[in-house]
Amino acid sequence: MEIEKTLLLDAPPASVWALLLDPNAMGACVPGMESIEVVSDDEYVAVMKVKIAFISARFKLKTRIVERDEPRYLRAEGTGEDASVASSLKQSSEMWLQAREGGGTELRMKVKVDVLGRMGTFGLGVMKTKADRMWDEFGVNAAARLAGPAAVAAVAEAAPVPLVAEAPAPAQPITAPAAPALPASATPAPGFWARLLGSGSGQEIRVEVRRGDTTITVQWPVQASQDCAAWLRTLV
Question: Are residues 153 and 181 in the same domain?
Answer without folding.
Answer: no
